[in-house]
Amino acid sequence: MLTTPQVELIQNSFTAAVTARDDLVTDFYQTLFLKAPSVRGMFKEDISDQSEKLAAILQLAVQKLGDLEALVGPLHALGAQHVEYGAEPGHYTAVAETLVECLARAVGPDWTEDHAAAWNNAFTFIAQTMLDGADMAAPRQ
Ligand code: HEM
After folding, report:
1. N or C end of the chain: smaller count of CB under 10 Å?
2. Burial of 90 (C-beta count, 10 Å sphere; 0-12/13-18/19+)
3. Domain count of the chain?
4. Where would you find the membrane-spanning parts of this chain (predicted)?
5. Which domain holds residue 41?
């Protein structure tokens, strides 16, 4: 589902994005809460710990994209945990769109449609795998 050139585009653009903006995840949460204010209450008031955890999991996912099988177990567990947080399928779309928007903003003029397509593929896989894990933990009716 992800070609080798797409994995490289993702890895290189992630490095470029975090180099350009060390506050990438802060920008992500600010943008998400503007776009989808209803999710603000799901998070703690102080999201600095949360920001570090998101940055760490993104870093791990980006490193392992060449070996998607290795990500399935951890993403199932993360998706199951998200049932308890109240995350619903529609929220994943908002999260993925916001992450792509913030990455594009951080990368700047070097961002292309190929970057968008590669990242969208990656987030489709991540969200679908997390939702599969959520279904295994608490099957939807
Ligand atoms: C790309 C998909 C996502 C990834 C990679 C991700 C990643 C994470 C990680 C790593 C944590 C910390 C878990 C821990 O404490 O060990 C977390 C917590 C959380 N996530 Fe997500 N998440 C994603 C999607 C979502 C969605 C769609 C929602 C729904 C709005 C959401 C809401 C939350 C909440 C409410 C917490 C707990 C925050 C707190 O304790 O204050 N996440 N997420």
Report:
1. C
2. exposed
3. 1
4. none
5. 4-136
